[in-house]
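seq/struct pair 1
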Amino acid sequence: MNKQQLKMAGAQAATVAIRRRVDIALGFALLRDKRLPLAEKALALVLGIAGMLVIQVLEVPLELLTLIFGSPFGIEDGVEAIVWPVILACAILPYLSPQSLVDQLRAERAQHL
């Protein structure tokens, strides 16, 4: 392989890695967007609750994670039952939503930056 082919392969790998990353901010934007049906938002929240229940069954200390990551934002102990499902739902929502809406919202967010 020559250098040009290696650069192209690296660029393609980087593009795939960027697309596969979890974009919680995009999930929050989708959660607030009126173009996304309520059923998909509800499904994401149900999956977020299920994910939190799985984490609790595995005995991952959510209270400690809430204390470590939530204290800079003023999130106190005891609200992890509300905060973590929403965060998980926002991580899942870009994968449940129609790709055209996700791309359109990403373009709108890029224009505002």
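seq/struct pair 2
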Amino acid sequence: MKNSKFKLDKSNWASVEGWLSIVGNILLFGLKYWAGLATGSIAIIADAWHTLSDSLSSVIVIVGAKISKKPADEDHPFGHGRADLISAFIIGILLLLVAFDFIIESYHTLQSRESSEFGSIAVVVMIISVVLKELLAQFAYFGAKKTNSKVLKADAWHHRSDAISSLVILVGIFVGPYFWWVDGALGMIVALLIGHAAYEIINDSIHSLLGESPSETIIEELKLTIEEVHPHELEPHHFHLHVYGDHTELTFHIVLPEDMPLKEAHDIATILEEAILEKYAYVSTIHIEPDVD
């Protein structure tokens, strides 16, 4: 029973995934950097630094998850759950900086018409990188689905982008001898892949931090629940969800007769709040409007 709880806990998932990533990434960085120096490949060296940057993001994952687990206090009455989103945003910025640096390095490689001689060393290292990084990505994605953690999802993107970039370089190794510009071009492609992943992570984090309207599906489900609890027409509307990690606040309006006693109106709102808390784990605040018609 304790093991099951451990697997489903966001902070525990983040810690395990983070430390596995740090160890794996440092080992891969050493292998890639050595292979890059041995072959003189800017694409492999750039990919090595991308891998090392994953270790920094994994540290952010661990710290962010630990902060988000802290309970509510006087300064943060809804808890510290949004530390998860802030951590994901920071990872996205790190990825963006890495992508920009790769573009500059690749441009210089193309401008100087530098070429690289890939050998069996590069092939073996890239195959190891693709397999290991994809395994780390799958583990992080699995944890993200289990815990609904955006920072784990962001770290999974980080791993996946590294796996893809290594795969692109692996393909380029076999065509490199025929085209001098392959190494620089591959560096550009890797940079674009990383930049795209960074954009997705940053965009998703910002939307969640600023606040998003609940989906039509969630609204319809809430309306059905309200109708089941109180069959009379309450005209629920103006739904807003405020997500703070594992804690979610819901606000919405209902319409009641203007001559209804305050006690009765309060009891209806309380029954709805309890039903929504039990079914969705949302803490609700309901605004009551009078039906003047």
